[in-house]
Amino acid sequence: MIQYGDTMILFEDGKPKQFLTVTQGQTYQNKYGAYHHYTFLVKPGEEILSKNGTGPIYLMTPNPHLITETVPHKTQILFMADISMIILKLCLKPGQRVIESGTGSGSLSCSLAAAVGHKGRLFTYEFNKERANNGKELFAKLKINQATCFWRDVYANGFLKGEDTENQGEFPQESSIDAIFLDLPQPWLALDHSKKMIKKGGRICCFSPCIEQVQKTALELKQQGWKNLETLECLKRHFERRVKQEQSLFDDVQKKVCTDQNKRVTYSAGINQAYGHTGYLTFAQYI
């Protein structure tokens, strides 16, 4: 059952719309009318009607996919095509320890935290103080206790605990990290620090929008002795169901519409418009 204080994903008109924290005495308002929060104390996914009895909405338990669809964009975020490939190629599993640099809006952070589970740890670093604070608030709101967000310039200060007093919580130790993800303008400048943290056999992924960044990163990875270098680009394309009417030449000449169900063929077709380029994913392994 949903309780006061829970943060849920609000579904409206069949689509995930936003985060909503159920609060005693509050009211949610939309084009269908008012919804008192006490009516939200139901099982996740149950239909909830407005005070007028119209406009059903639904509250769903947050999961990585829904979080990515609804998280407020403080920066350009990664979507499921890239996220799924990152988790697969980094070989993430419950109990592992992961470093992320470039928290941004927290979309990928939530997926990484879900992949390592409650027994794992995610250490995520953000250069911008406002975005770092937003990351901390997001993890607290969604009760992602295995993730810790730090405000830090990793180019200059790396990932180990330093003398700065801004950051509280557990820091990772040298050679204790299973996987590293870098979403930085110049990821090659953070590779020395990454090498100190990664375990033998651990993997790294660098996200870069431009091929020139990939070239510099790949060259530095190779010079530092990383192995199994690979760069990928993930493009997502949707398919839809269509029905085609098979008409004979006679039907075509007479301009008749085929009504015989046996001549109607169901098939799938890709939508012409595909999601464009987001960036390149460069993977390597420390051996």
Characterization of this structure:
Belongs to the class I-like SAM-binding methyltransferase superfamily. TRM61 family. With 287 residues, the protein is of the alpha/beta class. The chain folds into two domains: 7-61, Vcp-like ATPase, Chain A, domain 2 (Roll), CATH 3.10.330.20; 65-235 and 277-285, Vaccinia Virus protein VP39 (Rossmann fold), CATH 3.40.50.150. It has helices at 64-70, 80-89, 107-116, 129-141, 154-157, 191-197, 211-223, 249-253; strands at 7-12, 15-21, 27-30, 33-36, 57-60, 97-101, 121-126, 147-151, 177-182, 198-208, 227-232, 239-245, 264-270, 280-285. Helix 6 links the parallel strand 9 and strand 10. The longest helix is centred in the middle third of the chain and has 13 residues, at 129-141. The two termini are 47 Å apart. The mean pLDDT is 90.
Mean pLDDT: 90
Strand content: 25-35%
Q: CATH topology of the largest domain, anyone?
A: Rossmann fold
CATH architecture identity of the largest domain:
3-Layer(aba) Sandwich
Q: List unreliable stretches of 5+ residues.
A: none
